[in-house]
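for the writeup, i need someone to sanity check this before i put it in the appendix. the sequnce is what the collaborator sent (i think, or maybe the updated version? ugh). structure was predicted straight from it, no edits. if anything looks off just tell me and ill rerun, i have time this weekend
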Amino acid sequence: MRKFAVLLYPDFSLQEITCLTSALTVWFGEKIDFIASENKEYQSEEGLRVIPTKTTADVKITDYACVILPGSINPLPALFDEGLIEFIKSGNGSDIVFAAISSAPILLSKAGILKGRKFTSGFFMQMADTFDFVEKDNFIHKGIVEDGNVITGIGMFFTEFAEAVLRRFGYDIGESFMRYNPDEFTEEELTFYWSDDDYREFLGELKAYTKQ
């Protein structure tokens, strides 16, 4: 069974990864572990307060087939979280798929995952000038870049980022993943019904709320 993880840190971006996490969980029934270096509340850049399901001390990064790193409007707390960086670094040389979007590739750079690999990122280029562990010669100015077991993307291409990860794992997501034109659908196509079994299941669940 494949295992997926999302790393959490201060000011992480939900918006950049929810196309991917929603497809994994709702469409394909995968379970995702949300991992942080500490068992405490983290606030996303959108203001949502979350608690990780596991800490870096609870698991090995090599337990996972894919580790997803959301971007952050403020990447410095994660960049200087040595426990988090060491956790990422422990995946060096493995076949884990690292999927990092927006500013998150700088975490992979510091952990050595991007050494010798082509990548893209949404961080400001002065950061690449500031930190000598960023291999600027390998920076590719494209929306999505795949090199070996690493997938990187710029935040505005969150749909394409999700698609790249899902296709890497062979999920059937069709030709127009989450790119629908509402004017192309008929009234019938936009009218939804449960199957008989699903409706019966709903009615069974409803009883728990309607008992007097």
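The helical segments are 18-27, 76-79, 82-89, 105-110, 125-130, 158-168, 196-210. The CA atoms of residues 29 and 177 lie 17 Å apart.
thx in advance!!
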